[in-house]
Amino acid sequence: MRGGLPGVTLRSSLGYTVDVYTHGAHVTSWKDKDGTDMLFCSSEACRSAVFKPPKAIRGGIPICFPQFSDFGPLGQHGFARNATWEVRAIDRDVSPRPAETDKIILRLSDTPETLALWPHKFTVLYEVFADGKSLRTSMAVSNDGIEIDLENDENDPALPGGGGIRLGGRPMTFTAALHTYFSVTDITRATVTGLRNVEYLDSLRQRQKFTETTDVLHFPEEIDRIYLNTPNTLIVDDAVGAKTMSVMKSNLPDAVVWNPWVDKSAATGDLGDEEYTRFLCVEAAAIGTPVTLPPGETWDCFQILDVCKDPTP
Ligand SMILES: O=P(O)(O)OC[C@H]1O[C@@H](O)[C@H](O)[C@@H](O)[C@@H]1O
C-alpha cells in the first residue's frame, strides 16, 4: 500500500479491486479487471498524493464527519478523515456464494483528543463492500452518551418511581459526506445527470440558494455546490473514456458537486496543477438538515457506486 500505510485490497467476483486504508477508512481506488480506476487519487508522479497521517488522502472517498466543510467549529470536514480507524472485521469469500462478497468493517470512536474537539461519546462503523462491479460504503453512527443512573435501580422496589435506566447523555448533531472523487478523462466533457429542479447552495456565491435548471450538468469552470434533497440516484458520465457510473444513496439527502479548477488546484499542495481535469467530486451528504442523534441511538446511511457502462478499452 502507498506510503507504507496499513490497508487491504478487496476483490469482487467480477475481478474488481478496491483499496482501503485504515488511515481515514479511506477508499483510494475501485478498479475493474483491466485496471481502469473509477476513482481519482492524486498521483505520486506529480508530487501530490500525500499518504502521511494525519493529513487526509487527496482523492478516493474521504469521509467528512462529524462536520462537512466549515459547517461548525471543527476543522474543515471534521476529523474522521485524519484519524486512524480500527479494523473490526475482514470478510474474504466466506459467504455461501464464494467470491461473491469481500468486505471490511472499520471502526472509529471517541478518544481524549476527539472529546476535546467534539464533546460526544460515539462509535462509527464503516463497511466497504466490493460486490460484482459495485462498491458499497455504509456508515452507522451511534451516540454512546448513555449514563446509567445507578441510584435508580429498577430491581430495587424501595426506590421511588419504579426505578429504571435513565438516559443521561446529550443528543449529538453532525453533518457528514462520502466525498467521492470520480475519475474522468476530461472534466470539460464529463457530465452529471439527475439534478434538474433541485435547489442548491452555491459555495462560490456566499452559499446563496439557487435552483438547478439543467438536467445534464456540464463543467466548463469551477464548481462548488451543495444540492439539497436530491434524487437518490445520480449519473456521472465520463463521456471521453466512455465509462458511466452511478451513485445510489440512502439517508444522505444532499449531494455536493465540486471541482476546484485551475487556480484552486494550483493552490492545493497535494494536487497537481493539471489534475483538476481528471476528477469530479459528487459527494453523497447530509448537510442541509444536520443529523441530531439522541443518546443510545444509531443513524445509518450508505452509497452504492456502480458501473453502468464499462470503460472503452
Ligand atoms: O481541500 P479539502 O479540505 O479536502 O476540501 C475540498 C473541497 O471539498 C468539497 O466538499 C467542498 O465543497 C469544497 O469547498 C472543498 O474545497
From TrEMBL:
Pfam families per the UniProt record, alphabetical: Aldose_epim
Binding site for substrate: R58, Q76, R81
Gene Ontology biological process terms in this record: carbohydrate metabolic process
One Gene Ontology molecular-function label: glucose-6-phosphate 1-epimerase activity
Catalytic residue positions: H179, E283
Catalytic activity field: alpha-D-glucose 6-phosphate = beta-D-glucose 6-phosphate
Gene Ontology CC annotation, any one: cytoplasm
Keywords: Isomerase
Transmembrane helix among keywords: no
Group of enzyme by EC: isomerase
Superkingdom: Eukaryota
Spans traversing the lipid bilayer: none
Entry keyword Isomerase: yes
Enzyme Commission (EC) number: 5.1.3.15
Family that this chain belongs to: Belongs to the glucose-6-phosphate 1-epimerase family.
Protein name: glucose-6-phosphate 1-epimerase
Species in which this protein is naturally found: Micromonas pusilla (strain CCMP1545) (Picoplanktonic green alga)
